[in-house]
Amino acid sequence: MKNKIIFICTGNSCRSQIAEGLFRNEAGEKFKVYSAGSHPSRLHPAAIKVMAEWGIDIQKQKSEKIDKYLNKGINVVITVCDNAKSTCPNFPDGNIIIHWSIKDPFHGWNDNEEDLEPYRMARNEIKDKIKDLLQRDEMKNL
Questions:
Q1: pLDDT of residue 140
Q2: What is the dotted CATH code of the domain comprising 3-140?
Q3: From the candidates 9, 66, 77, 126, which is the catalytic residue?
Q4: What's the whole-model pTM score?
Q5: What b-and-e string marks burial along 15-31, b requiring 16 or more CB atoms within 10 Å of the CB?
Q6: What is the pLDDT, as a whole number, of residue 80?
Q7: Going residue by residue through the chain (142 aa), what tens digit of pLDDT does each one get?
Q8: Of 8, 36, 88, 122, which residue is the catalytic one?
Q9: For residues 93 and 101, what is the distance between their CA atoms, to the nearest angstrom?
Q10: How many helices and strands, by DSSP H and E, does the chain display?
Q11: pLDDT at residue 92, rounded to an integer
């Protein structure tokens, strides 16, 4: 059975969605990958655009509430914003809990070229953190 990982943010529109797409791209065969928010909104068009720059399609991902995943056997829980860390519920099967403080790229719902840089910065930081995460012994031993 595959291990399950979830990335949690407040709105589940940018950072957690980017993390879901990147992690699925990097380690999707070994994991079922999800993302959710404490106050989900919608998938941000700029997140879709900056992921497409790397050939990763996240268009079909949905912004969903954390509660949907609480009893789904999630064993790796990663919060990607400070607010999510403070409000994240306990996942009964979560044996690896990690917090990444990723700066919020959100500054409106635009996806114009001049608005994309903060999303690229968040994407690049998340990619580095995922690479580091996959090298950790606790992840290799799952």
A1: 77
A2: 3.40.50.2300
A3: 9
A4: 0.94
A5: bbbbbbbbbbbbbeeeb
A6: 95
A7: 789 999 999 999 999 999 999 999 998 688 999 999 999 999 999 999 999 999 999 999 999 999 999 999 999 999 999 888 888 888 888 888 999 999 999 989 989 999 999 999 999 999 999 999 999 888 877 7
A8: 88
A9: 23
A10: 5, 4
A11: 85
Distance CA 58, CA 82 (A): 24
Amino acid at 5: I
Query: Is residue 37 exposed (0-12), middle (13-18) or buried (19+ Cβ within 10 Å)?
Result: buried
Spot the catalytic one: 33, 48, 81, 116.
81
81 is known as an active-site residue:
yes
- For residue 66, what are the CA distances in angstroms to 2, 56, 69, 79, 103? 20, 24, 6, 11, 21
- Collapsing DSSP to helix, strand or coil, 23 comes out as helix
The CA-to-CA distance between both ends of the chain, in Å, stands at 11
**73, amino acid identity:** G
